[in-house]
Amino acid sequence: MRRLAAIMDADVVGYSRLMGLDEAGTYRAVKRCRDAFILPLVAAHGGRIVKQAGDGTLAEFASVLDAVACAVAIQRTMHDHAGGAEAERLELRIGVHLGDIVADDGDIHGEGIAVAEHLQEMAPPGGVCVSQQVYDQIGLKVDFPLTEIGCRTFADLPGPLRAWRWQPGGAAGEEPPAPAQTDPLPGKKRPSIAVLPFVNLSSVEEQEHFSDGFTEELIATLARCRWLRVVARNSSFTFKGKAADVRRVAEDLGVKYVIEGSIRRAANRIRITAQLLSGETGMLLWAERYDRMLDDVFVLQDEIAGQITGTVEPELGFIEFAALRGHTATDMDAWNIYLKGLWHLYKFDLENLRISKALFEGAIDLEPAFAQAHARLAYVHIQLGWYGPLDERAERIADATALAERAIALDDREPAAHLALGRARALGGQPQRGIDHLRNALRLDASFAQGHFALGQALCYVCRPEEECV
């Protein structure tokens, strides 16, 4: 039966991380929180608990005013009891939406459930997020301030979702928050890199244009790596022709790594040398030499820039992860937890896949808009479907599809998101849709080795392997 209802979705902040630290203690704390706060307050406001799973609680109300009042009462009570036995270590995010639902044997379904879940994800820890439909009904009827936080788009919703938020301590006249961070990755810890102008060591004056053009192409190619912060050309070229200490360059440009190199030409042959340096110590981390025939300048620039990027990107991943050895998830931020998850993912065995799943979930708990963590978590589900029990495969592929779509909604230029969705579609019986997403991944990053492998595999499924060879 279809009806209009107010839906409240509540979730524990950082649940996966807390379970990793103390599974039994976290389970008891969540149960105490439900029994002491959530269940009594839902009942007191005329609501009905529909579902309780893990750290999540879904409830419905006949009155939208009652639903929002209940959500705020839960958060205020949690805030007042912070540190007490019932609320120990726990914070909640709560989303409330007013929309159509379909009731079926005690359960409820429909788009309104998905909207409430997205609102919960957008809510600040300890706060409440409501949809525009809710605000239109209650805006002037409540005694607490609601602040507009703008619109977000989601792959599983037909249009933008406008939302309003409340959190403890807010005042009616408070200024609206700054616009949401558009960076799809946590920026503070992302590795940063500058490419210095490649030095022309040839006697041919025209070769200077080739050197500058190659440097620009390498900067542009590296910038397609969504997890790298790459200094723009104009800043890097201020060091052209200067013999500067790499450590001083890194300090002036605010980067962690520097790439420099040289180009030599003899007749129709060209040699490009590139090296990756630590901006902190000036130590050489990686170096390579590329010898080619100079037939088509632009093809050559694209090829070598792609090869350098395809080598430097994973090299930086290994270097960044090596710095994390000995650290646990409790003393790392979302970016470093993500890096640790990558390391375990690429072991490709069940034990490490399960570890990487928990780590990516922990990164998402800390940074809900971390697109690349959603994408890699989707990829973990694909691998668990492949290596795990056969009877779980369909569910794993469905989970991977949902996570990959969420990653694309957060950042549609993230190659790893298209990779995960492409593999999920191909393995889920939609090979052509999978191939389209895999081609998107390679359009975004032509150096993406995983993307080339996955595309070749998908083309083999449909007996077209020769297409990946051209």
Q: Mind explaining what this structure looks like?
A:
- Helix content is 47%, strand content 20%.
- With 470 residues, it is an alpha/beta fold.
- It has three domains: 165 residues, Alpha-Beta Plaits (2-Layer Sandwich), CATH 3.30.70; 131 residues, Rossmann fold, CATH 3.40.50; 137 residues, Serine Threonine Protein Phosphatase 5, Tetratricopeptide repeat.
- The longest helix has 26 residues.
- About 3% of the residues have low confidence.
List the SSEs and their pairings.
Elements: E1 2-12, H1 15-21, H2 23-44, E2 48-53, E3 56-61, H3 64-80, E4 92-104, E5 107-109, H4 111-122, E6 128-131, H5 132-138, E7 147-152, E8 161-166, E9 192-195, E10 199-200, H6 207-222, E11 229-230, H7 233-236, H8 246-253, E12 257-266, E13 269-278, E14 284-293, H9 297-322, H10 334-345, H11 350-366, H12 371-387, H13 393-410, H14 415-427, H15 431-444, H16 449-461
Parallel strand pairs: 4-6, 9-11, 9-12, 10-12
Antiparallel strand pairs: 1-3, 1-4, 2-3, 4-5, 6-8, 7-8, 12-13, 13-14
Helix pairs in contact: 1-2, 1-11, 2-3, 6-9, 9-10, 10-11, 11-12, 12-13, 12-14, 13-14, 14-15, 14-16, 15-16
